[in-house]
Specification:
Layout lengths: L18 H31 L6 H9 L24 E5 L2 E5 L3 E5 L5 E6 L5 E5 L4 E5 L4 E5 L4 E6 L6 E4 L5 E5 L6 E6 L5 E7 L2 E7 L5 E9 L5 E9 L5 E8 L5 E4 L4 E4 L3 E5 L5 E6 L5 E7 L2 E9 L4 E8 L4 E4 L1
Antiparallel strand pairs: 1-2, 2-3, 3-4, 5-6, 6-7, 7-8, 9-10, 10-11, 11-12, 13-14, 14-15, 15-16, 17-18, 18-19, 19-20, 21-22, 22-23, 23-24
């Protein structure tokens, strides 16, 4: 006779709940809801207040600069970039190296990748970089282009020859050109590419520089006296509220190049360098001791000048002047 075996029966066990952990769970749930609501409010608020900055170019920049490599990862760079052109100019812009040629502007990052490739046609491209924008203009031509690290923002042109151009850290920029009635015309634009100021000067243009904050202008020109001898003219302007000429210096030296900041200015001549205060008063003149400058460059309140010592042996001498503190920094 077959007797079935009784199956196992599962006895229900009463789960004991801990009131302390139940309270913590409730608090965590409430905090999670509060954090989610605050995150949504923050996201909507940022999207509302900074809606103008949420553009396809900025999103492209964010994705382009995103790094997916692990810290300490060893990477081998085998790509070689080569640019060659009869007329070229270079500048450091943010974390990029800018190369301007007759056919366009390229920005290279530290890996050698091309961050920006902007096309233009210029016979003598000259590049100047600020904190926000980079300006490329055709010196002795009539066109210029303003870019950032993502795209070309604005293309402008002048009716007459462009002799010089300069861009500030705040995005404003200056174009030194001429007209049918005046030898020199200074046009100053804001960061939105709108004409803000315009000055006419009846002297031959040489160079014009803006301070980084756009409140000071240094204009270098030349003219002829009553006997026909050439004279150099150094003019300082205050652009903070209205256009005001601070100082106009006439000298028998012809200026070559100048730089200005809110702390001082320096003007390069063939035989020396002159230092000036922000109001245009000459502080001191430093002679080059018979040497003639062949190259010069300015950055960060310092003016570096190169002198040719031996053309056959290709030996040069370099001096760096701190024009904000009026001293020779190194040689």
């Amino acid at each position: 006779e077959y007797i079935p075996r009784a199956g196992k029966q599962q006895e229900s066990e009463e789960v004991l709940r801990d009131s302390y952990y139940e309270k913590l769970t409730s608090i965590a749930r409430v905090l999670r809801y509060i954090a989610t609501i605050l995150l949504l409010v923050f996201g909507l608020g940022m999207a509302f207040f900074f809606s103008e900055d949420i553009t396809a170019e900025n999103l492209k920049l964010l994705l382009r600069n995103a790094s997916f490599s692990f810290p300490g990862e060893q990477a081998a760079f085998t790509t070689v970039r080569y640019d060659a052109d009869p007329a070229m100019d270079f500048a450091a812009y943010k974390e990029y190296f800018a190369v301007a040629t007759t056919t366009g502007l390229r920005l290279y990052d530290h890996r050698g990748n091309i961050a920006l490739d902007s096309d233009h046609s210029m016979k003598s491209p000259t590049v100047d970089a600020g904190k926000d924008y980079i300006l490329v203009y055709d010196r002795e031509g009539r066109s210029y282009v303003i870019c950032n690290s993502v795209t070309s923002l604005y293309s402008g042109s002048e009716e007459h020859t462009i002799y010089w151009a300069d861009v500030c850290d705040d995005g404003s920029y200056m174009v030194l050109t001429g007209s049918s009635t005046h030898l020199s015309v200074i046009e100053i634009y804001n960061r939105s590419f709108k004409l803000k100021r315009k000055m006419n000067v009846d002297r031959y243009p040489l160079c014009a520089r803006l301070s980084d904050d756009g409140t000071k202008l240094l204009l270098l020109t030349c003219t002829a006296d009553e006997k026909g001898r050439a004279e150099g003219c150094i003019t300082f302007y205050d652009l903070s509220e209205k256009t005001e000429q601070l100082c106009d210096v006439i000298t028998d030296r012809i200026p070559i190049y100048g730089c200005i900041s809110d702390k001082g200015a320096a003007v390069l001549f063939e035989d020396g360098i002159g230092f000036y205060d922000p109001e245009g008063k000459e502080i001191v003149f430093s002679s080059f001791d018979g040497m003639t400058p062949c190259l010069y460059s300015e950055s960060g309140g310092c003016l570096t000048v190169a002198f040719e010592r031996d053309r056959v042996l290709r030996e040069n001498r370099i001096r760096t002047y701190d024009y904000e503190n009026v001293k020779l920094r190194g040689e």
